[in-house]
Specification:
alpha/beta; binds flavin mononucleotide; 10 strands; 335 residues; eight-stranded parallel beta sheet
Length: 335
């Protein structure tokens, strides 16, 4: 069983933190559907930016299953330490540090994966965060394989992390210079796994249960972290867990069950964001769901623009429910 500090994870397939996606409703859903962990969207460690509604929502963890993971980004050790301490007081049970974001400015300074060029600062940041929180709170690190292809210092960073007291690593198989381009490579992740004793999650381009198994085999990693493949398919975690456990695909979920998951997700979005914001946030998820569902008489080309144009949560929900009911009943009648 995979452990992070004193937390035993129910599964070794976890949700990747994604700003604008892994909000509280999505995290709860992913955990219900089998994700072993679901980290929050990245929060800057600069407290001066915490008064915004966006930051406050990112710090809201009510109703989330344990262990609750808060991801922080920062380039100032004292500031990061203070942010970690405050988030633990607010209910974080694991603190994850982001050194994987390729954006130049995520917190008014170079941070995210830009830090990988400065190994001394990396150790200062990680040590400061580990020292700031109680020993029972694991601090984890999410990073890339290096700065660019000529400077793949992922192994050095992983060793620094282990020495700094980091409890687990998640490695995206790209360098900072790669952004999201090209294919993820897993050889560096395998080298990192070989170099440290703490658990390692392999991340990048894992979209199917078969790929999850193949990446685990290639890297000997302890777990996989899945991001974009969960867009519009939060059930992917259960499917991957099943395949890893049984070596064959999970039985297809009945459409009625999928419909209920999607509608419950919409309701959770509306409850979390409120009327005005809720209808807008739901568009993104509805678009992803529609992309993944096979067409049918109620899944017409006109449905998508209508859902996007809906002026209220009530109208949007009613439209989605009518379409999904028709889609689910088709299968039920055929059975
Ligand atoms: C929309 C989006 C937002 C992201 N936001 C974050 C973030 O807040 N923190 C982070 O560490 N990584 C972030 N990432 C990177 C993902 O966690 C992950 O490393 C990357 O998407 C590769 O995994 P995948 O191929 O399974 O999507 C983000 C990625 C996407 C697509």
């Amino acid at each position: 069983m995979l452990r992070i500090g004193s937390y035993a994870l129910g599964a070794n397939v976890v949700l990747a933190p994604m700003a604008g996606v892994t909000d509280r409703p999505f995290r709860i859903l992913a955990r219900q559907l089998g994700a072993g962990l679901a980290a929050s969207e990245m929060l800057t460690s600069d407290q001066r930016l915490w008064h915004t509604t966006k930051s406050r929502r990112r710090m809201d963890h009510s109703g989330e299953p344990s262990p609750r993971v808060v991801q922080l980004a920062g380039a100032d050790p004292a500031q990061l330490a203070e942010a970690a301490r405050i988030n633990v007081d607010l209910g974080a049970e694991i603190i994850d540090i982001n050194m994987g974001c390729p954006a130049k400015k995520v917190c008014n300074r170079l941070c995210g994966s830009a830090l990988l060029r400065d190994e001394l600062l990396v150790s200062q940041l990680l040590e400061a965060a580990v020292r700031a929180v109680p020993a029972a709170v694991p601090v984890t690190l999410k990073t890339r394989t290096g700065w660019d292809r000529e400077h793949r210092n992922g192994v050095a960073i992983a060793r620094i992390a282990e020495q700094s007291g980091i409890a687990a690593l998640a490695i995206h198989g790209r360098t900072r210079a790669d952004f999201y381009e090209g294919e993820a490579e897993y050889a560096t992740i395998a080298a990192i796994k070989d170099a440290v004793r703490i658990p390692v999650f392999a991340n990048g381009d894992i979209s199917t249960p078969q790929q999850a198994r193949s990446v685990l085999q290639q890297t000997a990693a302890d777990g996989v972290m899945v991001g974009r493949a969960a867009h519009g398919a939060p059930w992917i975690f259960g499917d991957m867990n099943y395949f890893l456990l049984h070596g064959r695909s999970a039985p297809a979920r009945p459409r009625r069950e999928l419909r209920d998951i999607m509608l419950a997700h919409l309701e959770a979005i509306y409850a979390f964001y409120g009327e005005e914001h809720g209808v807008r946030i739901a568009r993104k998820h509805l678009g992803w769901y529609l992309r993944n569902l096979p067409p049918g008489p109620t899944m017409t080309p006109a449905l998508r623009p209508a859902l996007m144009a809906a002026g209220s949560t009530t109208a949007q929900f009613a439209m989605a429910r009518a379409a999904l009911d028709g889609w689910a009943e088709m299968e039920a009648q055929a059975a």
